[in-house]
Amino acid sequence: MPPRCRSSLKKALTASTFISLLAGASPGFAESGVQLYGLVDEWVGARKLPGGERAVRVSGGGMSTSYWGLRGAEDLGGSYKAVFSLEGFFRAENGQYGRFTGDPFFARNAYAGIDSPYGRLVAGRLTTRLFLATIGFNPFGDSYVFSPMVYHTYLGLGTSQPYPTDQGALGDSGWNNAIQYSSPDFKGLSASAMYALGNTPGQNGAKKWSAQFTYSGGAFAASGVFQYVNFSQNPGDLAALTASMKSQSVAQLGLTYDLAFMKLYGQYMYSKNDRSSQGSWHVNTAQGGVSVPAGTGKILASYAYSHDSGGLDLTRQTWALAYDYPFSKRTDLYAGYLNDHISGQSNGNTFGAGIRSRF
User: Fold this and answer.
1) Alpha-carbon span 277 to 260, nearest angstrom
2) Domain holding 241: CATH number?
3) In DSSP terms, which residues pair with 45 in a beta bridge?
4) Which of 194, 219, 225, 310 would staple 133 via disulfide (CB 3.0–4.6 Å)?
């Protein structure tokens, strides 16, 4: 065979092998599968945070944070499987990886573990149970642009926002150095527990832990989750976020009921923040929302209210309204408006339209 033909054949075989890996036909592992998947979300509009200035922008994550991932499973026999997942966020508006500069490459999930008839056990960087409960029981899901409940849970305490607030949950939506067990489904009921370590010499007591139950039966679904943290990213770093802070406990209950002509959402969250001095404080948060079919698409509406006691004594009220239109099976178009008010500060508001496409 001429050298040029041998070179072309080699390149074709290499490309074919790579494609087969992504498609799940991994050579040498007949029962293995690897899948490439993800989501791209871009929106155009304007945003003004409470007490801040307005910025007109083209940005990502209007309804969902853009990400890509690889996941796979290998059949080990006897109903056991080895599983893994590697997922990273990216910003399509500028081509950079991560939700922000300095974000880990695989910030969404990076784990390996075992699936069995007795449940799933995984270890690595894991999405927290509180985050999954927060996005699962509000009509705007994981939107950091239009979801009032996401604002009240994750855009507040320790997130370097330009407005002063001592409300919200500490830490990221994912925990490093974590291990998680998830039970099998039993007539719609399941449970999960997660534990994360500080991984630092002399800091074996640094910990985060969480437990959750979920239930889904017919038109009704519910979730209850508890989370405790005594560090954010590194042992002892809470004091850098809030003076003398040593730990936080968060409990959240979520409910949905689908009436066919309307889906109802409700959440209640209680946060207790402990400090070594200056006293502790707690925050009560409630969210109510609806999703209403309208033509081919649906109208989304949500309102969240938070009040803290013993801290800055702030009240936060946020509401949002949007329309989401499924342009195709994988792509939807949306437009929305959000109003955000923190006592003592000028109103924040966001409006815009975007496109979300899954692959």
Assistant:
1) 51
2) 2.40.160.10
3) 57, 352
4) 225
With residues binned 3-state (H G I as helix, E B as strand, rest as coil), the percentages for the chain, rounded to 5, are 10, 55, 35
Q: pLDDT by residue (tens digit) across 134-146?
A: 999 999 999 999 9
C-alpha neighbours within 13 Å on the C-beta side of residue 16: 7
pLDDT at 240: 79
Average pLDDT over the chain, rounded to an integer: 90
User: Per residue in 18-40, pLDDT tens?
Assistant: 334 344 444 444 456 899 999 99
Round to whole Å and give the CA distance between 108 and 174.
Answer: 7
| Structural domain span for residue 46 | 41-58+75-80+115-358
Work out the widest C-alpha separation in the chain, in whole angstroms: 82
Q: Determine, yes or no, domain membership for 101.
A: no
Token pair of 328, please?
Answer: 């195709």
Domain-embedded: residue 236? yes
The answer to whether residue 290 sits within a structural domain is yes
At 28, list the tokens.
Answer: 């040498």
Q: How far is CA 221 from CA 188, 266, 314, in A?
A: 9, 11, 31
Total count of domains within the chain: 1
Coil, strand, or helix at residue 205? Answer: coil
Q: How confident is the model at residue 16 (pLDDT cuts 50, 70, 90)?
A: very low
End-to-end CA distance of the chain: 40
The structure tokens listed for 94 are 């500028």
Is the predicted pLDDT of residue 45 greater than 90, yes or no? Answer: yes
> What does DSSP assign to residue 43?
E
Residue 155: name the closest of 318, 337, 275 by CA.
Answer: 318
**Inside any domain, residue 325:** yes
Euclidean distance between CA atoms 194 and 190, whole angstroms: 14
Kindly report the pTM of this predicted structure.
0.89
CB atoms within 10 A of CB 53: 9
Helix (H) or strand (E) holding 3: helix 3-23
